[in-house]
Structure formats: structure tokens, C-alpha cells
């Protein structure tokens, strides 16, 4: 382990995962597919960089979340029509999330927000002729199903960013708390 602070460790993971997240979102919008190479890239990043920046005892336990999330994703694939690529990407992203109650709550909050935001933005943008003319070959514009990889990738990127930059997270939490009173 490199002996980095928590923020530095998450910054490394954020910078390495961000291109993969952008690629997954673009691919799911354009092809309605999340390529296996993106899933393999996430696993490789956590295998190598995760081991370098996360204490071994935490790193090894985070692999358990891969099995749990894959089982849930496979059930959603079989029963609810969730995409297989979504299940694989979610499983590959799972070890990047800390397993504390607060982090799980944050992840679920981000997933809910990203899901609603991505769905709304996608449905709105596909109704704008200039957007669909600029991207005429994007399968998601005409597909009945929603490219959920956009929300999954956004959730991973946002979580890593919030953990890497805790001052922003504190500001955001304060903002949310002040609007709920």
C-alpha cells in the first residue's frame, strides 16, 4: 500500500475510473450495450490500483460486494428485464464503494438521483430534433428501454468524486440539510 490519505486514495481511483465511466455512458447511449472491456477495465483498476491505495484488509473484503451485487443484478436481469451489461458493470463497480452504512446510504441516494436525472435528461433530449440529428445513429433514441449504464456510471463517478473531495461533499450535505428544514 502506498500510504495515501483516504482522499488521495479516492482521487487516484476517481481519475482512473472517470474515463471508463464516460465510455460506459457513451456506449450505452449509442449502442445500448456496455462492453465487457469496460467491465474488465474496472476490475483491473480495482485489482491493481485498489490494492495499492486501500489497506489490504479493506480491499479484500470489498470483493465480497462483487458477488452480492452480481447476484442482485442477475436476479434483476432474469426477472425485471435489466440489461446483462448493467448487472456486470454494477458488480465491477461494487468494490469501489466502502461498506459502511453511511457509504451505502450515500451510494443508494446517488443511484436514485442519477437514475431519475439520467432518465429525465434522456427522455427530454431525445425529443429535441437538433440533438437527435447530431447523433442519428444512437440506438437509445429509438429504443423503448432506458440506457441504465448512464446512471450506473454517473453514480460511480459521483461517489468517487465526493469521497476524493470531502469539502465539496460537506458543502453538498449542508445544502441538502438546509433545504429540508
Chain-wise SSE layout:
Elements: H1 6-31, H2 36-53, H3 56-80, H4 84-93, H5 101-125, H6 129-134, H7 149-164, H8 166-179
Textual characterization of the structure:
The chain has 181 residues and is mostly helical. The chain has one domain. Helices cover 77% and strands 0% of the residues. The longest helix is centred in the first third of the chain and has 26 residues. The chain starts with 5 loop residues before the first helix and ends with a helix. 31% of the residues are buried.
Give a short overview:
The chain is mostly helical and 181 residues long. The protein has helices at 6-31, 36-53, 56-80, 84-93, 101-125, 129-134, 149-164, 166-179.
- What does the largest sheet look like? none
Query: How much helical structure, as a percent, in the residues?
Result: over 70%
The count of helical stretches stands at 8
The end-to-end span amounts to: 43 Å
Overall number of strands: 0
Cα Rg: 17 Å
Anisotropy-based shape: globular
Mean pLDDT: 95
Order of helices and strands: HHHHHHHH
Structural class per helix/strand content?
Answer: mainly alpha
Poorly predicted tracts of residues? none
| Total domain units | 1
- Strand proportion, as a percent range, falls in under 5%
Amino acid at each position: 500500500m502506498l500510504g495515501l490519505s483516504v482522499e488521495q486514495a479516492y482521487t487516484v481511483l476517481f481519475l482512473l475510473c472517470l474515463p471508463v465511466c464516460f465510455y460506459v455512458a457513451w456506449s450505452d447511449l449509442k449502442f445500448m450495450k456496455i462492453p465487457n472491456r469496460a467491465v474488465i477495465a474496472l476490475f483491473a483498476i480495482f485489482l491493481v490500483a485498489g490494492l495499492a491505495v486501500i489497506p489490504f484488509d479493506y480491499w479484500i473484503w470489498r470483493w465480497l460486494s462483487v458477488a452480492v451485487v452480481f447476484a442482485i443484478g442477475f436476479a434483476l436481469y432474469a426477472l425485471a428485464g435489466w440489461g446483462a451489461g448493467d448487472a456486470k458493470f454494477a458488480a465491477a463497480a461494487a468494490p469501489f464503494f466502502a461498506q459502511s452504512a453511511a457509504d451505502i446510504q450515500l451510494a443508494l441516494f446517488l443511484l436514485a438521483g442519477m437514475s431519475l436525472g439520467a432518465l429525465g435528461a434522456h427522455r427530454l433530449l431525445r425529443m429535441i430534433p437538433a440533438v437527435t440529428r447530431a447523433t442519428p445513429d444512437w440506438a437509445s433514441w429509438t429504443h423503448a428501454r432506458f440506457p441504465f449504464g448512464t446512471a450506473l456510471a454517473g453514480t460511480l463517478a459521483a461517489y468517487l468524486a465526493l469521497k476524493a473531495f470531502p469539502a465539496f461533499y460537506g458543502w453538498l450535505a449542508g445544502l441538502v440539510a438546509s433545504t429540508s428544514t
